[in-house]
Amino acid sequence: MVDLDQVLHNFNNVKGNRTTWESHWEEIAERVLPRQTGFVGDQVKGEKKTQKIFDSRPQIALDRFAAVMDSMLTPRQQKWHNLKTTDESLNKDHDVKAYFYEVNNILHSARYSPKANFASQNFERWISMGAFGTGSLFTDFVPGVGLRYRCVNLRDTYFLENHQGIIDTVYREFKFTARQAVQRWGTDMMPERIVKALENPKQNQEFTFIHVVAPRDDFQRGRMDAKGMPYSSYYISVQDKQLVAPEGGYGSFPYSISRYVTAPDEVYGRSPAMTALPDIRMLNEMAKTDIRAAHKLIDPPLLLHDDGMLGGGAMTINMTPGGLNMGGVSRDGRALIQPLQTGARVDIAEAKMEQRRQSIDNAFLVTLFQILVDTPRMTATEALIRAQEKGMLLTPTMGRQQSEALGPQIERELELLQSHQMLPPLPPALEEAGGDYEIIYDSPMSRMQRAEELVGVQRTMELLAPFAQIDPTVLDVFDRDALARMTAEVSGVPMPILRSPEDVEGIRKQREEAEQQQQMVEQAGPMAAAMKDAAQANQMLTQQ
Length: 544
Fold this sequence. Notes:
This protein is α+β, with helices and mostly antiparallel strands. The protein has 16 helices and 13 strands.
C-alpha cells in the first residue's frame, strides 16, 4: 500500500527546492517565450504577456533553434535511426536484417501517424529546452489510436534523479474541475468533496491533483497486475490526500527528458536563453531607448518664445498639417517656434543592437546554419569541410540529446508496440540470442559527425593521385566496395537503393561471362576468315 503522506511530503520538498529556478524561468519566459509564463504567481488566462518585449530577435532565435534541433535530430521526412542486434555476427543474417528493417518502418509509421501528434509535441519539447534548458515528452498508447505523445509543461513537472544522474521520478501537478475529474476517473474512488461539487452550480471550481511516476520498490517480474511493472503510477488528490484511481504502472519510463546542459548537483538543465539572458536584457533596454530617440527625431519637442506669442500667452500650437499658428514668427520673419534637435545617432544605436542580436544568434546556434546564405556557391570539398566543422561544434549538444532523450523514447515506443502485439515475431536466430538490440542514429546530425570520414578519404585520394599515375597498384589498398557503401551511408543514401553484396557479386559474374563471350566472338571472327582462306586455297590447288 502506497504511503500517501510520504509521497506528498516528497512532492512538497521537490516543489519547494526549485523556487529559485522558477523565478529564473519566469524572467526568461517574459522575454523569450511569453506564452509559457506563469512559473511565479497565479496565471490569469488570456492576459497580455508581451509587456517586457521590445525586440523580437530572441523569440525568432528560439524558434530557429528548435527548428535546427528538429531538422538535425528528428527530421520528419526521413527515418532518423535504425536498429541492429548487439551480436555482430547476426547483423549479416538476412532474416535478422529484414526483421529490424520492418520494425523500424512500423515504428516510424506509428510515430508519425496523424493521431500520434509527435511532430508538434516534439517541436514543443525543443522549444522548452531552448528557453528553459529542460523539455519533457510523455509517450503513451491509446487503444484505437496507437502511440500518443504530449509535451508536458515544465511549470507542472518536477524531477528526481537516481544515483547515476538519470531522471527516474516525475511529479506532474495539474488542475481539473469536478466534472473533468469524474470524466477521467469516475466516482468509485473520488473524494466526496469533489463529487458534491458536481451538484454545485459553481462547477468551474478547480481541484489540484498530482500524477507520480517512480521506480517500483516491490517490482515482481512475471506478475500481470501493476506490481509486475517496473514503474508505479499514482493519481492523488492533493487537498484530500487520497488516491482517485487504482494504482497503475508502466513497463518502461514514459517520460523522455531533454536537458541542454547541466551544472554539478543540478537536476534541471540550463539553456541557450540563460546564456544569452544578459544580451537579451540589454537588447530590450537598447530597443526602448532607440524607440524614444527615434520618436524625438521624428516628432521633436518644440522650443517656444515666452513673450506672449500665440494669442496673448496661450501656449496652444496647431500641429495639424496645413495648420496656422498666428504669432509663430517675429516681425522680421524670425521663427519663434523651433524643434529641439538632440543630435541622437540612431544609426550608432542600431549597430550596437545588431551586435547584441548576433550574440543571441550565436547562443541559439543560428549562425552555424547561415553558411548557405553567406556563401551560396561552394565546391563539394568545401561543403564536406563545412559539414565536418558543424559536426565537431554540435557533437556535445546533439550527442546528449541522442543518449538522454531519444534513446529512452525509442525504447519506450518499442516496448509499447511490442506489448500491444504490433511488431512481427522475432527470427529464430535473434530469439535464441535474446533479442538484444541497439539504436543506430542516421539523422543529418549523425552524418555531419561522420563527414570527417569522407573528408579523410577525399584528402587521401588527392594525395595519392600523383603516385597512382606512376603506379596504379597503389590504389589496391582500398576496398572499393566498402568505400562506395560508406560514402553512400554517410551521404544519406537510403539503404534499400543499394544492392546487396550477393546481388553485386551476381552482376559482376554476369558481366565477366558477357565479356568472355564477346572475346570468344571477337576471336572467332579472324579464325573463321583464316579457315575460309585456307579452304579456298585448297580448292584452287585441287583444281590445278
